[in-house]
Amino acid sequence: MTAVEQSRLDLAGEVPVLLVKVGGYPLGYGTLGAVRSLGRLGVPVYAMVEDRWTPTAMSRYLTRAFVRPTSGRESPEHVLAIVRDIGRAIGRRCIALPTDDEAAVLLAEHAADLAPTFLLPPVPAALPRRLADKGSMRELCGQFVPVPRGVAVRGTRMDAARAARIIGYPLVLKNLEPFTRLYRPVVPHTTVVQDEHQLLALCRADGNLSVLVEEYLPRESSESWSTHLCCGPGGEPLAVFTGRKLRSYPPAEGSATRACSVPNPELADLAARLCKQLGYSGVADLDWRLDRRDGRYKLVDFNPRTGAQFRLYETVHGVDVARALHLSLTGRAVPQGPQLERYFAAGQLDLLSAATATWQDRHVPSDLRPRRSTERAWLCRDDVVPAAAMAVRFGGQAIRRLAGLARRPLTGARG
Q: Does the keyword Nucleotide-binding apply (predicted)?
């Protein structure tokens, strides 16, 4: 980082940041990344957490953790009251940075009420909800960029089966709407479905489904790409990054566990033009599939908030999307410069993904060796305690799941 850039970012310490979240994901590494990114530059960072022992709460760069667990079932008024109370406790106007879709929706739809306490990007109030909804996102963004074929289902399992026959198997199932995905999910995550038997097993028989049935783009003929952006008023691009997802967990379905930063001017321009056409302002994480059968990048997700692996992406001046947003909302220019080429790894989750890939493909992935340029989700030299907290929680979850699997045959025998 240059001396000029360091001095500019040091001034940002005058304005604090609150990381706003809705729902329980204590091992979410995007939140921890934001704490470290801003905290290292002297910005006072506050975060909503599930408990005091989450990796985020244990970071040395966090000014204060506010233990405010939510599930997504609460009324908007209840969550907004929590956010306002935290703002009053901080004692000065601060930037509210959403780390999940539901938080992004709440902050945008109630920006006018929150304005006395929080600095927020001037995004159109209804836009984050439309983008977080997989169905309306397709309709909206499909006017400007290619999207996979898909059908939004708000109905019964037979409605889902009829949509599946239109799309064809294999296909992808995604929870459709923000908030609904938290308290009434159809699938635990993006799921590849092979046939109608599997589809009906996943879908509840009581109706009230909220799910997107989407075309499956096979990995043999496609590539996973992402763009992380920060846009100013009117969708003006302030920082645009591109990269490839190499592995995910669950494999081929979940969040990236290993990714690399790769400059891609074509995709960067496509994403920046889309945000400008939408008038989107703020931080965003867009997922794409390059369909090699027709050579087109197809948008599969538009997340109106920071992405889990956003810390992979940084310019030669030390600017990432969280820092760019802070500079923009505090009235300063965002220094322009090329992105660094480096890697991202999510610890134990990446090991699980690599092990699964080894079993399925019958060969060991070639990218397991350590790289100096790797940004790690939890482990870093200047903030080691969150990695230890993550290891304890992750180990506990693994033991509970194994115990549950061990009990299943016994339960069935008793039945």
A: yes
